[in-house]
Design a protein that fits this description.
Blueprint: H1 3-22, H2 32-70, H3 72-77, H4 79-88, H5 100-132, H6 141-183, H7 186-194, E1 197-198, H8 201-207, H9 212-255, H10 265-290, H11 292-303, E2 305-309, E3 313-317, H12 321-324, H13 328-348
Antiparallel strand pairs: 1-2, 2-3
Helix pairs in contact: 1-9, 2-4, 2-5, 2-13, 5-6, 6-8, 6-9, 9-10, 9-11, 10-13
Length: about 350
Amino acid sequence: MTSVEVKSLDDRKTIDQASSSRLNLTLPFASPTTLKTLGATFTACAVASAITLPADILITKWRNSALAEWNPELRAMGVGASSRSTFTGTSTSDTINPHSTYISVQKKLRIISPFFRLMSNEIATNALNYAMENSTTSKSPDRSSMTTYFAAGAIAGTAQALVLCPLEAYRAHSLAQEEIQAMSRAGVLSKLQSWFVSTCPTERLNRAYRGIGLYALREMAYNCTFFPLFYSLQNKFKSVMETTKTRQQMNTNNNNTTISYLSIPSWNFGERFFPVLISGVIAGTFCSAVVTPLDGLVMYLSHSREEWHFWTGRRIVSPPLNVIYRGISLQTFIFGPVFGIVACVYELV
């Protein structure tokens, strides 16, 4: 085994020990170190929400306008006009804004979701490390660490789904109720009956809950993918920088010079900061792209409706792909890297 590999394993042990020391299950959570970590992480989540929430509102605007063009019921209710009033500041008296509840819930989710994801993964990792400390039979530290990361991600994803799915169900239920109330107005019914097209309010209410299970699966898939990739990339980048540091030290010794980049404080800071930052951004972007098909499937299920037509009878109408995946690129390249930066802050504090 080379010296670089030994140092890489030492780095991995250091990372595991540092993670365990932050939220030690045997110590009270009110310790100064823990409070500092929780405060810095919550502050980072709040700052990140200032980026992700406007992006989420923009995606909602795009999808809302596209759905209003595709769905005659939404056009009859004036959803497209109400979405424009929401984001331009103008008000319309004859339209509704069925996404107002969505936005109010998202303001809370954009802070709670990343914070709870990091906390639950940390607690699950510490619990698994404690359980596997004396019972592990694996001789490979890499395999043991990756197993722990995957298992902790699954546990954290399940816990997060249990916390966030009720909020998602509340948002979906409120959205359906607002649309049903708008459909019951006389002006809307006259517009719909002129096309001989209608949907059952009960069907609309049931359709609101179709994507809840996939939402839970999405959270578990994201956690199971992000944390193993994040720590693996972090170890790889640390190994590369350690190799560069060793070569720099050898060149300094061979040239008998006293000036070295290793003595510059910025190099020592970058050696600790940049591997974590780059790993977080790459892992966040990749994992957001991984769960993108699930986001599209949730959109498909929640907006595919059973429609009754006077001439053709009942049929299933689904939104086209350009509506389902509108704003996905913004979601991948904004939400993923931002969470990676939040994870970087949590790791370094």
